[in-house]
Batch of 3 targets.
Target 1
Amino acid sequence: MGIRVAAAVVGGLFLVIYSALSWCGAGWLAMPPRRGLSPIHRERLAQMPGHGVRVMSRRTADGTPYLDCEPIPGGQPGDRGRLLRAQLAARPFPVPPFGRITGTIVLLHGWGMRKEDLLFTAERFCAVGFRCLVPDLPGHGDNPRPATNFGSTAAERELPAAVCADAARHRPLAGRPCLWGMSMGAAWAIQSAAIAPARWQRVIAVSPFDALEPVVFARAAAETHAWSTLLEPGLILATRCRSAMWLPAVRPIDGAGRISTPTLIVHGTTDDLIPLAAGRRLFDAVAAPRKRWIEVTNARHGNVLATPQPVFVEMAAWLLTSPESPGSSPPGKSEPRLSSQQTPHSENTECPIMRVRWHPQN
């Protein structure tokens, strides 16, 4: 009798601990600790007018906050914008006069980030003629929705279009908008483009995953070692309970075959979170007749945009080149690895949530 009682107690304790770990893990994934507006963010916002960029804070009808960034007519670009314009002109590549808006692009941030983390990315794209719309994604920043589903629900896939529609109320958009995303935001961009390819002019995905489940469990294995396999079923069920997400179904690759929009995918060769092979599988699945694959040599997940390699030049050129122009990439083109080119130095910072070193795009 004593053995049975002991076994029941041990089994009950195991169930409690297992459930608690699964519940906490699901919360960490779908509801990461939110980053508030830091002094660094406030400083960057204050700097933007001096860099030739006007930043306006807006909200969509459902409460999604976003930054509306546009070049200031008659203004002057900051160092980042001047460098990008000079690099494009050196190719040579036609660059619109500073302050003229020739396009619109929605910038989607990564997991654990917030919209202000992409201010310097917006500054660069504004310098070459783009109006940049930068939302806080669900479960992040000041977005009122409590959890993220990594762009896998119908409402989330429509979020970029909803931001564009709201921005158009304040000022008409310049042509069809483009989509740009990083990591989680990259997978979000792919899933949004898949439901309405004709809505978007171009898509750029930086370090995307083809399927979320392998990425999550590879990270879990690195953290918990032998326990990861045991925790998988509990984490999947707990995530479903805490959000609308069914983890095995978050697969951007499943919709990639419906994308006809010209698509550029950028991936670091030594990505320590999302393997290079995952990004390549997604690229191969994209059905767009014009697509481009770029590998960034020795870049990890957190610094793919902060290496000495000219990634922003490649992305800007992709956005500015019309599909019919001679400078367009031929169908399915894979690019050689980018060679080094001097860019402004950026300090390293630690993102405590991801345990990945994030390098701000200074």
Target 2
Amino acid sequence: AEDAVVLLDQRALPADEIYLDLKTAEEVARAIQDMVVRGAPAIGVAAAMGVAVELGRNPDEPLGEVLGERLEAACARLARARPTAINLQWALDRMRLDLSGRLRAGESADRVRAAARQLAQRIGDEDVERCLAIGEHGAALIEPGARLLTHCNAGALATGRRGRSCRARASPPGSWHARGFLLR
């Protein structure tokens, strides 16, 4: 199966549940621009996945300048998709730093591509861990029956699978889950 970033098209909610298979960094960038994916953490995870899927294209492509140029082009295009998104830039900087270092060290194309997938997944997993920690800390501050008002998109759709401030209301732990990013 061809690699793809699978995103829930948030524009279709709540009437429809539509998933998009995005196979290039350009498609992921357009999804970010067009508000398919929303929320700073989710945008950062989507961008990291976009880099990984882009580098996974054309697996027979030679290592070196060509793969490095594709990395830089993918990061630049994704960064333009939402220039003010801090998580997007942070995730792209992290991908660029790690992968360009591997390229300079002469790692094989297969290893660089595998590292891109692993790092993108790690960025998503770390977001889940942060959300759970925020929720656990927040839960201790919220009295039973309290009403909460958030001023931003803080739920599972805005993050890499788990909500942030809303996570504190989830009970029992682990019960509140949305389909997140898939890199297959």
Target 3
Amino acid sequence: MGAPMGFHKLGYCYDQGIGVPQDDAKALEWYRKGADAGASLSAYNLSVFYEGGRGVAKDDAAAIRWLRQAAEAGLPIAQNQLGSRLKQGKGTPKDLAGAIEWFSRAADAGFVTAQANLAAMYEKGEGVPEDQTKARQLYAAAAAHGLSVAQYQLASMMEQGRGGPADPPAPTPCSSPPRANCPLRRKRLPRSKSLSQRRTWKRGSASMTKPAAASQKDANRKKNLYG
């Protein structure tokens, strides 16, 4: 293990209290040594400390400076974070072109959150000409790696036919219309029927009767499930 990562790991031990008492001041000391020696993770962690004012006075300018150092060293999470700061103008002047650049670098490295962030900018035409096709491709790349927000956005674009051919979801018996054909739909009985009759419903052609109250075993199981 080289010196930069040795400094970083020692800083992380003090950061998290692993094998030593937790100590923000010592974590900062070793992270600075790591960052000065070229450890991008140390630079990123320093940005987090300065942004939150942890163990040091809150300093947005210092947070951005360390974050940029980590991003320029090629750390995808830092590149994505710097893109977000530039897009929002948080701790630094708003710069959509800069946000596009850093999101693109992180996305090219396979960082899925950056792919979704870049897709959103192409979808809305923020900092770049609107490009629905490019947005859909980027959402698809992030969705393929399980990012839920990208999966949702991709499904929306496919349903609406934006950025590519329309691909609406297949209808199901329980979708609207018609709900009348839904096999899970309970048959409502008139209120004049007795309580025992109103607890009877049909599922397909078979008739079943629901007990008036759940058993104690069922009640305990539900309690375990929902805490």
